[in-house]
Amino acid sequence: LNEMDQKTKLEAEAEFRRKRLEEMKKMVKQDGSESSNSENDEVADETVASEEEEDTESTAKENTETKSLVFRNYMPVSENLKTVVREPAKPEDVIEELRDDIEQATNDDNSGEIDLNSLAPRKIDWDLKRDLQLKLDKLERRTQKAIVKIISERLKAGNNDLLLSAVNSNAEAVVDSHMSDDD
Protein backbone atom coordinates (compact mmCIF):
# COMPACT_ATOMS: atom_id res chain seq x y z
CA LEU A 1 0.00 0.00 0.00
CA ASN A 2 2.71 2.44 0.95
CA GLU A 3 4.65 1.84 -2.28
CA MET A 4 1.48 2.34 -4.31
CA ASP A 5 0.79 5.62 -2.55
CA GLN A 6 4.35 6.79 -3.20
CA LYS A 7 4.13 5.88 -6.90
CA THR A 8 0.86 7.74 -7.32
CA LYS A 9 2.30 10.67 -5.41
CA LEU A 10 5.39 10.75 -7.61
CA GLU A 11 3.29 10.42 -10.74
CA ALA A 12 1.10 13.31 -9.62
CA GLU A 13 4.16 15.48 -9.02
CA ALA A 14 5.58 14.57 -12.44
CA GLU A 15 2.27 15.47 -14.08
CA PHE A 16 2.25 18.79 -12.23
CA ARG A 17 5.77 19.57 -13.52
CA ARG A 18 4.79 18.68 -17.09
CA LYS A 19 1.80 21.01 -16.95
CA ARG A 20 3.93 23.79 -15.54
CA LEU A 21 6.50 23.36 -18.30
CA GLU A 22 3.79 23.47 -20.94
CA GLU A 23 2.38 26.67 -19.45
CA MET A 24 5.82 28.26 -19.46
CA LYS A 25 6.31 27.27 -23.10
CA LYS A 26 3.01 28.90 -23.98
CA MET A 27 4.01 32.06 -22.14
CA VAL A 28 7.27 32.23 -24.06
CA LYS A 29 5.40 31.84 -27.35
CA GLN A 30 2.96 34.59 -26.39
CA ASP A 31 5.77 37.03 -25.60
CA GLY A 32 6.21 37.51 -29.32
CA SER A 33 9.48 35.80 -29.73
CA GLU A 34 10.08 35.17 -33.42
CA SER A 35 12.39 32.24 -33.05
CA SER A 36 11.53 28.70 -34.06
CA ASN A 37 9.68 26.19 -31.90
CA SER A 38 12.82 24.28 -31.01
CA GLU A 39 14.46 27.45 -29.76
CA ASN A 40 11.36 28.26 -27.71
CA ASP A 41 11.46 24.81 -26.16
CA GLU A 42 15.11 25.25 -25.27
CA VAL A 43 14.49 28.71 -23.81
CA ALA A 44 11.56 27.43 -21.76
CA ASP A 45 13.62 24.52 -20.47
CA GLU A 46 16.48 26.87 -19.57
CA THR A 47 14.18 29.29 -17.74
CA VAL A 48 12.63 26.46 -15.74
CA ALA A 49 16.06 25.10 -14.85
CA SER A 50 17.37 28.55 -13.88
CA GLU A 51 14.30 29.24 -11.72
CA GLU A 52 14.72 25.92 -9.91
CA GLU A 53 18.41 26.66 -9.30
CA GLU A 54 17.56 30.11 -7.94
CA ASP A 55 14.96 28.57 -5.61
CA THR A 56 17.42 26.06 -4.21
CA GLU A 57 20.12 28.71 -3.83
CA SER A 58 17.77 31.11 -2.04
CA THR A 59 16.57 28.43 0.38
CA ALA A 60 20.15 27.38 1.05
CA LYS A 61 21.09 31.01 1.78
CA GLU A 62 18.09 31.42 4.08
CA ASN A 63 19.00 28.26 5.96
CA THR A 64 22.58 29.36 6.49
CA GLU A 65 21.52 32.86 7.51
CA THR A 66 18.93 31.74 10.04
CA LYS A 67 20.94 28.90 11.53
CA SER A 68 23.95 30.00 13.46
CA LEU A 69 25.74 28.20 16.23
CA VAL A 70 25.25 29.53 19.72
CA PHE A 71 26.68 27.55 22.60
CA ARG A 72 24.97 27.98 25.95
CA ASN A 73 26.04 24.98 27.99
CA TYR A 74 28.88 23.65 25.87
CA MET A 75 32.40 25.02 26.07
CA PRO A 76 34.01 24.39 22.66
CA VAL A 77 37.65 23.39 22.35
CA SER A 78 38.25 25.09 19.00
CA GLU A 79 39.28 28.75 19.01
CA ASN A 80 36.95 29.50 16.08
CA LEU A 81 33.93 28.25 17.98
CA LYS A 82 34.80 30.07 21.19
CA THR A 83 33.71 33.32 19.54
CA VAL A 84 30.07 32.17 19.36
CA VAL A 85 29.76 31.11 22.98
CA ARG A 86 26.91 32.87 24.73
CA GLU A 87 27.72 34.45 28.07
CA PRO A 88 25.94 32.85 31.01
CA ALA A 89 22.75 34.58 32.06
CA LYS A 90 22.96 36.66 35.20
CA PRO A 91 20.23 36.06 37.77
CA GLU A 92 17.84 38.91 38.35
CA ASP A 93 17.83 40.75 41.64
CA VAL A 94 14.74 39.52 43.49
CA ILE A 95 15.63 40.67 46.99
CA GLU A 96 13.36 43.73 46.80
CA GLU A 97 10.42 41.66 45.57
CA LEU A 98 10.91 39.17 48.40
CA ARG A 99 11.06 41.98 50.97
CA ASP A 100 7.76 43.37 49.68
CA ASP A 101 6.14 39.93 49.87
CA ILE A 102 7.41 39.36 53.42
CA GLU A 103 6.18 42.78 54.58
CA GLN A 104 2.79 42.17 53.04
CA ALA A 105 2.52 38.77 54.73
CA THR A 106 3.45 40.19 58.14
CA ASN A 107 0.99 43.06 57.81
CA ASP A 108 -1.96 40.80 56.99
CA ASP A 109 -4.89 41.28 59.38
CA ASN A 110 -6.15 37.71 58.93
CA SER A 111 -2.95 36.08 60.10
CA GLY A 112 -4.07 36.05 63.81
CA GLU A 113 -7.54 34.63 63.13
CA ILE A 114 -7.35 30.91 62.51
CA ASP A 115 -10.40 28.68 62.71
CA LEU A 116 -9.47 25.75 64.96
CA ASN A 117 -12.18 23.55 63.44
CA SER A 118 -10.49 23.73 60.07
CA LEU A 119 -7.14 22.72 61.60
CA ALA A 120 -8.34 19.88 63.84
CA PRO A 121 -8.05 16.49 62.21
CA ARG A 122 -11.26 14.58 61.68
CA LYS A 123 -11.88 10.98 62.52
CA ILE A 124 -11.27 8.55 59.72
CA ASP A 125 -14.91 7.49 59.42
CA TRP A 126 -16.55 10.91 59.74
CA ASP A 127 -17.88 10.84 56.19
CA LEU A 128 -19.33 7.36 56.62
CA LYS A 129 -21.17 8.42 59.76
CA ARG A 130 -22.50 11.51 58.01
CA ASP A 131 -23.76 9.52 55.02
CA LEU A 132 -25.32 6.73 57.08
CA GLN A 133 -26.85 8.87 59.83
CA LEU A 134 -30.18 9.35 58.01
CA LYS A 135 -30.54 5.61 57.45
CA LEU A 136 -29.65 4.86 61.06
CA ASP A 137 -32.21 7.38 62.31
CA LYS A 138 -34.90 5.76 60.18
CA LEU A 139 -33.98 2.30 61.48
CA GLU A 140 -34.03 3.57 65.08
CA ARG A 141 -37.59 4.87 64.63
CA ARG A 142 -38.72 1.57 63.10
CA THR A 143 -37.09 -0.36 65.95
CA GLN A 144 -38.89 1.74 68.56
CA LYS A 145 -42.22 1.24 66.77
CA ALA A 146 -41.66 -2.52 66.61
CA ILE A 147 -40.84 -2.66 70.35
CA VAL A 148 -43.98 -0.67 71.20
CA LYS A 149 -46.05 -3.01 69.03
CA ILE A 150 -44.64 -6.12 70.71
CA ILE A 151 -45.28 -4.69 74.20
CA SER A 152 -48.84 -3.71 73.33
CA GLU A 153 -49.51 -7.23 71.98
CA ARG A 154 -48.22 -8.79 75.20
CA LEU A 155 -50.37 -6.43 77.26
CA LYS A 156 -53.41 -7.52 75.32
CA ALA A 157 -52.49 -11.16 75.89
CA GLY A 158 -52.46 -10.53 79.66
CA ASN A 159 -49.03 -11.78 80.51
CA ASN A 160 -48.02 -9.28 83.20
CA ASP A 161 -44.82 -11.06 84.17
CA LEU A 162 -43.68 -11.08 80.60
CA LEU A 163 -44.65 -7.43 80.36
CA LEU A 164 -42.32 -6.46 83.18
CA SER A 165 -39.39 -8.33 81.61
CA ALA A 166 -40.14 -6.80 78.18
CA VAL A 167 -40.17 -3.25 79.60
CA ASN A 168 -36.91 -3.86 81.43
CA SER A 169 -35.25 -5.33 78.33
CA ASN A 170 -36.48 -2.36 76.28
CA ALA A 171 -35.03 0.08 78.81
CA GLU A 172 -31.69 -1.75 78.73
CA ALA A 173 -31.69 -1.74 74.90
CA VAL A 174 -32.33 2.01 74.81
CA VAL A 175 -29.53 2.67 77.31
CA ASP A 176 -27.15 0.43 75.36
CA SER A 177 -28.00 2.13 72.06
CA HIS A 178 -27.35 5.57 73.56
CA MET A 179 -24.04 4.41 74.98
CA SER A 180 -22.91 3.01 71.62
CA ASP A 181 -23.83 6.28 69.85
CA ASP A 182 -21.49 8.23 72.12
CA ASP A 183 -18.51 6.12 71.04
TrEMBL record:
Pfam families given in the database record: cwf18
GO cellular component terms attached to this protein's record: post-mRNA release spliceosomal complex; U2-type spliceosomal complex
Chain intervals for the UniProt region annotation (Disordered): 24-71
Compositional bias annotation for Acidic residues: 39-57
InterPro entries named in the record: mRNA_splic_Cwf18-like
Stated name of the protein: Coiled-coil domain-containing protein 12
Organism: Trichinella papuae
